[in-house]
Fold these 2 entries.
Entry 1:
Amino acid sequence: MLVRNATLADGRVRDVRIDGERIDAVGTDLTAEGEVVDADERLLLPGAVDAHVHFREPGAPHKETWRTGSRSAAAGGVTTVVDQPNTDPPTTTGAAYDQKELCADDALVDYGINGGVTPDWDPETLLDRPVFALGEVFLADSTGEMGIDGDLFEDAVHRASEAGVPVTVHAEDATLFDPGARDRAGEGTGRGADADAWSAYRAAAAEIAAVERAVEIGVDAGARLHVAHTSTPEAVDIVADAPDAVTCEVTPHHCLLSRDDLGDLGTFGRMNPPLRSEKRRAALYDRVVRGRADLIATDHAPHTRAEKETTLLDAPSGVPGVETMVPLLLAETLDGPLTAERVRDLTAATPAETFDLDRKGRVAAGMDADLALYDLDRARPIRGGRLHSKCGWTPFEGRPGVFPEWTLVRGTRVYDGVMGTFGSADGVNVRG
Ligand SMILES: NC(=O)N[C@@H](CC(=O)O)C(=O)O
Ligand SMILES: [Zn+2]
Ligand SMILES: [Zn+2]
């Protein structure tokens, strides 16, 4: 297959020839036998690598399945996902890993499977499997109640370091949460201004202190440490000033939404770590734009509408995002501060490099033909009902997004955005 006249992220117009699963050449005036697609100078990006999704199987297929989650990924130009361990059973033993791998057989895109840490985890059998990373290791409770104490975290970081496996950490220190704000969260309706109590409760200081401590532990152990969903500029700065072995990700929602949006979002805007002040959001996003934060990952955490439509304390934490990450960021190249190159680096090149995925994240000869084509003249309002996640809603309702016309995974068209159709489930384990 040959994709002719594609504009690459750096502005060059090139032909991209695909031979089987790989990109075989990037150049001008290339010829090929077989299918020829004229990109007509539309934007061709490497498929995004989302290092943080929750696909909910096994255990909660009513929220999401590997089939629906990976369709949502493909329809958003994401061709590799990394699934987190807070499923049921939690992915904390070799047997639980195997069970998740069976579910992942339904994946349309390539994937990694993380291993979790709880007091009853079984590091021997778990680390015997090709875990993508240990994590997200929860330093405070979130969905799945997998919060652990500092000693167990330290032990897990040492084991991971010895096994040569990276650690990703959910860093919040629950001892620094604000109990008064939690009481207010319990008294309020969860709607309008009341929804802000969750942000007051899981205060920014709790994240900053936990990131500081986690980085210390990671550096002492000589581990590869990746801090999940950093939501404060202070936390990003701690990571940026640490050795190269320490990296962080930022979510689209922490870049584009703040406490000011909670009036509209209500309990649907409850997530961990929570939305921050408009001032912190702007400073965080600025670090993403300037490249001080390493990469973007979605923390795609679907819950049903019915589950979210309750009181603030009863609503589960988390928002979906795997399908809207690249579309939102591309819209930000039109009337926001990002460039196509920065979007490529944040969503594909850097996550692939960070997690040693040698054949992912770049449009170059020899790489996997994971590609998505975008027409920047066709931004459209994001509608939760048109997305492919099982949850059927989005915190970004009505915002502009540039969705892919098609998405390829290793040379196979897994999503056709014009027809609205999907390919078959051929995703493979990137560590398998
Ligand atoms: N981010 C969230 O608020 N929720 C995540 C768990 C997590 O990433 O902490 C979930 O699995 O629902
Ligand atoms: Zn988390
Ligand atoms: Zn998460």
Entry 2:
Amino acid sequence: MEDYKYLFKVVLVGNAGVGKTCLVRKFTQGIFPPGQSATIGVDFMIKTVNVDDDKIKLQIWDTAGQERFRSITQSYYRSAHAIVLVYDVACQPSFDCLPEWLSEIETYANRRVLKILVGNKVDKDDEREIPERIGREFSEMNSFDYFLETSALDATNVDALFEQVATRLTHDMKAADQRYSSYKSDRSASGTVTLTDRVNNIISPCCGRN
Ligand SMILES: Nc1nc2c(ncn2[C@@H]2O[C@H](COP(=O)(O)OP(=O)(O)OP(=O)(O)O)[C@@H](O)[C@H]2O)c(=O)[nH]1
């Protein structure tokens, strides 16, 4: 039997060059890759983290930001439990493209997907073009579940980003499991179940965010 409680798929999207691959490699391998080349299509890495006392496996999909790969990367949205939309705090065009990415997420991802906005490269303080306040306002106005500024170079908030994703998804999943268990025990106690009970209560244990 596999040694983990849940497996979650996390998909990183955003313009080319914002640092998606570096964030993933910093988190999964602890390195900031020198001379990182552009991602071709999609790549993935796995890391197991602990949430409470449970082992949670994160399958992290790193997508290519380049326009020519867009149709490939779109097919990864549907099965994502969480989508991390990344921009570069020192690159205004990467922030200006966020509405375009959001509309992709709305079109292709599940309605209940966890959405996180990340402003990367905060180590480039002198070159910053997007103040933190503007990023936070954008995330609030567009119903992101949370917002973080990170640096894959100096590791600021990199672990925190993925740990928060794992924690939030685990808690959501446990709550769904609990509702499912109480639905099952209500059903066995009453012997029958009405159509309204089903509509109100049924939650599959494996569909917390699917
Ligand atoms: N200063 C700084 N540079 C970074 C950071 N993260 C990534 N970079 C640099 O930004 C460039 C692009 O990084 P990638 O991780 O390849 O970006 P990407 O978003 O995966 O790009 P695509 O694969 O083309 O979509 C590289 O030169 C990295 O060294 C960071 O936190 N700080």
